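hiii, so i know i said id send this last week but things got crazy w the move. better late than never?? heres the sequnce for the chain we talked about at the cafe, plus the structure i predicted for it. fair warning i was half asleep when i ran it
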Amino acid sequence: MASPKKNREFDPIELELLWRRLISMVDEAAAAMVRTSFSTLVRESYDFSCVITDAAGQSLVQASESIPSFIGTLPETVKHFLHEFPAEKLSPGDVLITNDIWLGTGHLPDITLAKPIFRDGKLVAFSATTAHAPDIGGKIRSPEPREVFEEGLQIPIMKFIHAGNIDETLVSIIRKNVRTPDQTMGDLWAQVVALDLMEDRLRVLMESYDLPDLTDLAREIQGRCETAMRAAIRELPDGTYHSELKTDGIMETPITMKLKLTIRGDEIEMDFAGTDAQVDRAINCALCYTNAMAMYGVKVCTSPNLPNNEGAWRPMTLKAPPGCIVNPVFPAPGGSRMLIGHYVPMLVFGCLGQIVPERVMAACGSPMWGMNQSGVRTDDRGNAKPYANMFFYNGGMGANTQRDGITCLSWPSNVSSTSIEISEHIAPLRFHHKKLRPDSGGAGKQRGGLGQEILIESRSETPIAVSFLAERTIFPAFGIEGGKDGAPGELRINGVKTDPKRQYVLKRGDTVSLGTPGGGGHGDPKQRDRAALAADKAAGYVTDPTIYRAAAD
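okay and structure toks below
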């Protein structure tokens, strides 16, 4: 009788070297993806993620610049791939694809690819990427669609590449259904470049360290993360905590979100019972995205420096009633799901802030703001070509116990603001200004981060369809511990205050003015440091110091 296989042990130095090698290969893949991409969404805004999982689809390591939500959703999509294509149905050279909103990230523009990695004929890992495509067809991205069929091309789980052979029919279908076929396919090939690079680097690593598979290494890395996360949770007092908040919603009807968070020993359970029902607009947030954002919120408050992999998530469970806005059911639309999903970490903060207030911050001027456009642009040769793209513009972060909120920084995403130079290069737009919003950061002992003001003019000879990602125009980012709210956001077209949840058409000369929300303040404003307040006034961040009167006197 053969003796059972003995698990390989790793000494601390060897494990650290392996870990650094793993990080370097996913970071290298991310850099390659940025260099080879065609769209600003990847190249400028970094709206993507690169991950390596074990053979079971459990996340092992992710690129440093990865989007927090994708870190949570991407490994789950790999598990869905495995359910549809078990190991025996996979071959070297396969690349799997989907943008199913319930199996992916919650909206169609995010396309997920994964490549099975084999060693000696055995499936040992997956390289995987998710990236926001410049266009996916359908109605341009906005909250207006009433069902998922309006939002663009749905790609079921299938093989994009089968044993090295490209599915040209799928390529033709994608190119026919999107406004920007060259950009969309160019970004997909950039994802493939990243997959191949991760595969190549992982093969070299496994050969160098004589690893027949990743079972033992994954068990060690994930196990250490799980142990550390459980220890961090165990330090929190057992109990059940509740939080609630309102979002702008749609048609002047706010959305109420509720969370019950229960701590039992080294585990946390999150329950969204009581949250409002899904709506017939594209702000519904699929459970995959809700789960990722909720776990991210817990991790930020408990063990922020811990690596993001499967082990960190194991002590946490989540449930939400089917049909609520954070767990919508088919065929609900979800193209603007971050307008709900980006509130989820703040709900977590509302619960954990009751027991560890020093670890949470005031509300942020997010969800992220952005302007989506679809039109026609004439190139230098006089050729008119359709274009479509999303430009991101961030609000201010909330303040915390130690420092002011950061200005114009996306949170809980890490999407970068699109530069003026790039925007004007790829779209027929003129930017009159892009500047900080004075007095937009909530007053406090620690001031909230500032939002920004952007004035854009259409210079297109043909109409441009525009839609927006915009929240906190009604309910501002709230302050905590005596801090004041940040300034609400504002959208104007031709100087007229406008509903940001609708689509509009711009003619030549029309203007769009965006004022992104400021973050909430932390602590009593009258306790603000005199030197900090003086610096704010000198820089123009604060023009009316009345609320800080005690500090100013």
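btw The mean pLDDT is 93. thought thatd interest u
miss u guys!!
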